[in-house]
Amino acid sequence: MFSERKDDGWLLPLFLQALLQRFLLDRAVSAYIDSQKQANITILNKSGKGIQGFAVSSGNFMDITDNGLLTDNPNTIIVPDAKYTIQIPLSDLKATVPVVIFGVLYDDSTEAVDETVRKKMHDARLKEKERRLSTSK
Q1: So where are the chain's domains?
Q2: What is the pLDDT of residues 106-117, one digit of tens each?
Q3: Burial environment of residue 28 by CB neighbours within 10 A (0 to 12, 13 to 18, 19 or more)
Q4: What is the topology classification, in CATH, of domain 6-135?
Q5: CA 21 and chain centroid, separation
């Protein structure tokens, strides 16, 4: 487990360890604020499955990282036992609100996701597929 690190007056909140374990990501490996004023949070995939997409949220901010937005046959973004760094602009974060992974789409077509976020992730995939099809005509 990593400890909190204070940079530029921001206190990065510790991740909700139980929620990360729910998605079998094990833990955040590190977190720091870079010179471009972005939070860099490195996670470790301990699920035994490849991850094709995930949703990160903090307060009103939500970001979906999903290879399925680009193709109908998405590649794995995070292979098992690999680290991945999430970058979030500080302007989208509040020091008192934790950053949480609310959804994970695995490469074996299983999911670990909040139902509302699941719908958003699948709707985003459908919308991007429709956009790709309309621009290829």
Answers
A1: 6-135
A2: 999 888 877 887
A3: buried
A4: Immunoglobulin-like (2.60.40)
A5: 14
